[in-house]
Amino acid sequence: MAWLGGRLALPVDLYRSIIGVVLLLSAIRFLVTLREPDRAMGRPPSRVVALVLGAFLGLLAGLTGVGGGIFLSPVILFMGWADLRTTAATAVVFILANSTAGLLGQLSTLATLPPDLGWWLLAVVAGGALGSWLGARRLPSPTLRMLLAAVLVVAGVKLL
Hints:
single chain; mainly alpha
């Protein structure tokens, strides 16, 4: 679905604004609950719910050009399907898959690739490795919540 969203050329101003506001509200929620215990509250979703949600968020990611994990993380946490660290690990895989598919969808609309693409890919791999190590081993949950809120703010502002 991210590939399809990347291929579609729709007027996006209205829904980008709506999504931007939703992301900013999600960031506020994370900041308000900064000190809450980090635990999953409910059961994971059924496969049908997970597939439908994943397809919808993938399409949304492809349409907006924003990694799908920025939408998936708040949903998982707000629904209580996983704790913060599991959510972060899940979102990384979702972002990689969505970003790859969305970029492949965009390739068919581009005449050439950006000349700095190699440097961007290197930065992505290095940042992903560092972030994974810090998130899994070093940073406490309140710090992870604050960082997630910051990412949501950046994505929300970018969409507005």
